[in-house]
Amino acid sequence: MLSTEACKNYLAGIPLSDEQVVNLRDTLYALVENVLDDYISSCGSITPTCKNLSSIVE
User: Do residues 25 and 9 make contact, with C-beta atoms less than 8 angstroms apart?
Assistant: First the structure.
């Protein structure tokens, strides 16, 4: 999770209190979590794949 200070850096120039920044951050995290949950649910079953990275990296 991004710190309050990191969020403030992204929101530079927008006058928000620490409490407002934390509320905004938490709301955005919840929104993204819900969107991802819905997306994953709509995909049905997801089969993980495993690639042998040693064959790619020399």
Answer: no
Give pLDDT, residue 14: 94
Q: In which residue are the tokens 């919840």 written?
A: 30
DSSP for 27-41 reads: HHHHHHHHHHHHHHH
Positions in the chain whose pLDDT score sits under 70: 45-58
Beta strand spans in 1-58 (E): none
Q: Which amino acid is at 44?
A: G
| Number of helical H runs and strand E runs in the chain | 2, 0
**Phi-psi category of 13—alpha, beta or left, where left has phi over 0 and alpha has psi -120 to 50?**
left
29 within 8 A of 1, measured Cβ to Cβ: yes
Q: Which two tokens stand for residue 53?
A: 């990275």
